[in-house]
Amino acid sequence: MSSMELTNQTLVSEFFLVGLTDDPELQPLIFCLFLIIYLVTILGNLLIILAVSSDSHLHTPMYFFLSSLSFTDICISTTTIPKMLVNIQAQDQSITYTGCLSQVSFVLIFGGLENCLLAVMAYDRYVAICHPLRYTVIMHARRCVLLVLLSLLVTTVNALPHSLMILRLSLCTDLEIPHFFCELAQVIKLSCSETLINYLLMYLGTSLFAGVPFSGVIFSYTQIVSSILRIPSIRGQYKAFSTCGSHLSVVCLFYGTGLGVYMSSAVSDSSVKNAVASMMYIVVPQMLNPFIYSLRNKEMKESLRHLISGTPSLL
Predict the structure, then answer these.
(1) Which among 49, 52, 108, 303 is least surrounded, fewest beta carbons within 10 Å?
(2) For the CA atoms of the chain, what is the radius of gyration?
(3) What is the per-residue burial (b if ≥16 Cβ within 10 Å, else e) of 4-20?
(4) How far apart are CA 181 and CA 175, in angstroms?
(5) Can you tell me the mean pLDDT for 276-303?
(6) Distances, alpha carbon 184 to alpha carbons 203, 205, 206, 271, 308, in Å
(7) How far apart are CA 64 and CA 59, in angstroms?
(8) Which residues, including other chains, have CB under 8 Å from residue 173's CB and lie 6 or more apart?
(9) How many CB atoms lie within 10 A of CB 53?
(10) Cβ neighbours around 223 below 10 Å, total
(11) From CA 206, how far away is CA 204, in angstroms rounded?
(12) In this predicted model, what pLDDT tens digit does every residue of 136-178 receive, in sequence order?
């Protein structure tokens, strides 16, 4: 391959985000759809954070982790959607080289953080159901904060090598990304240099930093189900399971959409289908999480009602 077909990363000024479609007639519809999704995501998760912070009855580990998850959802959505909306409005598909690498890094950090937080929340539910008498001793405030900070540290450590390895790539002249945001795998595909190390790092990182939290979730719920089945009364079983029903729904949504993205990329070469699958993973769970927790949780519904009406909580 001649040197004319390669352009060093230091010479690259911008990439081009193709998005979901290049049909100009559909652009206004997509703009309105994503604007609504973004506003609902921000408002819903912000209400969760405000409800938890303003209601002293929700100052528990479970709701602390929930507010951390809501903050993470806001960060993920803000990393990807606003740039897409600006591009559609300006009819300009470009994103700067620095902006693209920043998107890759922040998506890895906050996507991984959400994965870790779901595992931490599963551990919290495991302690609450399987060791209720020791719950306040195990899940004290300092440990909860340390678990969140550790999750953030782990995901940052995971994202840093990927970002640094992208910097060493020599990129081809075709810099179109068939997504509405800069995704790690799509950026690597633009390289005309050797990418074996990048792919090995990506698969190793996914297996380790996504597999371990997922295994933790599976282990926690295996123990939870086993403990619930030992409860003699049906009412007691239902009450115990209801405390983790919302979290289990969010877990199924998060990992279900993630599996959908993986299956879509494995069986289909269509850029449109892959872009839609990525949207389902990076946009939809973040929008639905507040609804799942507010609709399935009596304490959260009551706190939100008092927050919106401006009356003090009587719980």
Answers:
(1) 49
(2) 21
(3) eebbeeeebeebbbbbb
(4) 13
(5) 80
(6) 11, 12, 12, 15, 40
(7) 7
(8) 5, 7
(9) 14
(10) 17
(11) 5
(12) 999 999 999 999 999 999 999 999 999 888 888 887 777 888 8
Q: What's the one-letter identity of residue 211?
A: G
| Residue 227, both tokens | 């403990």
Q: What is the pLDDT of residues 70-110, one digit of tens each?
A: 999 999 999 999 998 998 888 888 888 889 999 999 999 99
Q: Give CA–CA dist 294/44, Å, rounded.
A: 9
For residue 205, which of 265, 163, 263 has the smallest C-alpha distance?
Answer: 163
Q: Which amino acid is at 233?
A: S
DSSP string computed for the chain:
--GGGEEETTT--EEEE--S---TTTHHHHHHHHHHHHHHHHHHHHHHHHHHHH-GGG-SHHHHHHHHHHHHHHHHHHHHHHHHHHHHHHT--EEEHHHHHHHHHHHHHHHHHHHHHHHHHHHHHHHHHHSGGGHHHHS-HHHHHHHHHHHHHHHHHHHHHHHHHHHTPEEES--EESSSS--HHHHHHTBSS--HHHHHHHHHHIIIIIHHHHHHHHHHHHHHHHHHHT-SSHHHHHHHHHTSHHHHHHHHHHHHHHHHHHHHHHH---HHHHHHHHHHHHTHHHHHHHHHHHHH-HHHHHHHHHHHHTPPP--
Mention every residue, 6+ apart, whose C-beta is less than 8 A from residue 109: 152, 155, 156, 158, 159
Residue 98 near residue 10, CB atoms below 8 Å: no
Residue 276, pLDDT above cutoff 90: no
Nearest residue to 149 (alpha-carbon basis) of 116, 126, 186: 116
pTM of the entire structure? 0.87
Cα dist from 79 to 129, 130, 255, 294, 308, whole Å: 36, 38, 20, 24, 28
> What are the C-alpha distances in Å from 172 to residues 15, 49, 59?
11, 44, 52
Q: Which residues contact 82 (CB under 8 A, 6 or more apart)?
A: 38
